[in-house]
Amino acid sequence: MRPSRLIALVAALACISTARAQGPFKAEVLKEAPPAAFGAALTAELAPTGYRVVNGEGKPYADIWLRKATPATGKPNGPNGTIQFPVLVEGVLLGAVRYALAGQDYRDQAIKPGLYTLRYGLQPQNGAHLGASDFRDFALLLPASKDPSPATLEKKPLDERSAEAVGTSHPGVLVLLASTEPAKADAPATVEDPQKGTWALVVPLPLAVKGEATPASLDIQLVVAGAAMP
């Protein structure tokens, strides 16, 4: 093995060990507005309060602000095959995140401390992603400096800008799962997957349903710590 690859492998393993060692991750309501650095257009779409994920040492790990109301094509009605959230359009803005500490995405790609947007994405249906997840739903990280508009992004710029978030040729991805337990906006929770060594934030995602006056929501699990795919 080349020295450069060995160093990268050791660093990746160290990153995973750190994420596991700093558990259990916990969540709390963050009574703080999104940073102005996200830009006026983006912050206008975000909730005025967010959620803080802290590690086992009690240190802030990531602050997340969800969109006030994410556009949806219809009322949530369960999965469609391997897609859990068929009412969401790929590229739609879900929220934004501020990493206080270095982390990693679901592919074990490094995430530097800083500001990122979160957009809905679907895992490609090809052999390179077999076994990555039972479902295709992901939240893609994009550098906030490269994503100032809340408008839905097309597939190509979505993937390209997300890859810039982790400095590789592959988008930076956080797994997005349907929560098996009711999620509460005023009482965010975390759930561990001991088998995969991951931690997820459990919260409701507010929706603005097309053609409906009444808002809806999705109870989601957003995997924020730990990597479970190569």
Task: For this entry, give a set of tags.
two-stranded antiparallel ribbon, single chain, about 230 residues, about 15% helix, eleven-stranded mixed beta sheet, disordered N terminus, alpha+beta
Topology:
Layout: H1 3-21, E1 26-30, H2 40-43, E2 50-54, E3 60-66, E4 70-72, E5 93-99, E6 103-104, E7 110-111, E8 114-122, E9 137-143, H3 155-166, E10 172-178, E11 189-193, E12 198-209, E13 216-225
Parallel strand pairs: 4-12
Antiparallel strand pairs: 1-2, 2-3, 3-5, 5-8, 6-7, 8-9, 9-10, 10-13, 11-12, 12-13
Structure notes:
This protein is an alpha+beta fold. It has one domain (3-225). Helices cover 15% and strands 35% of the residues. The protein contains three helices and 13 strands. The chain has helices spanning 3-21, 40-43, 155-166, and strands at residues 26-30, 50-54, 60-66, 70-72, 93-99, 103-104, 110-111, 114-122, 137-143, 172-178, 189-193, 198-209, 216-225. The strands form two sheets. Strands 1, 2, 3, 4, 5, 8, 9, 10, 11, 12 and 13 form an eleven-stranded mixed sheet that branches. The chain has a two-stranded antiparallel ribbon with strand order 6-7. β11 and β12 (198-209) form a beta hairpin. The longest helix is centred in the first third of the chain and has 19 residues, at 3-21. The protein is globular, with a radius of gyration of 17 Å. The two termini are 17 Å apart. Residues 3-21 and 127-131 have low confidence and may be disordered.
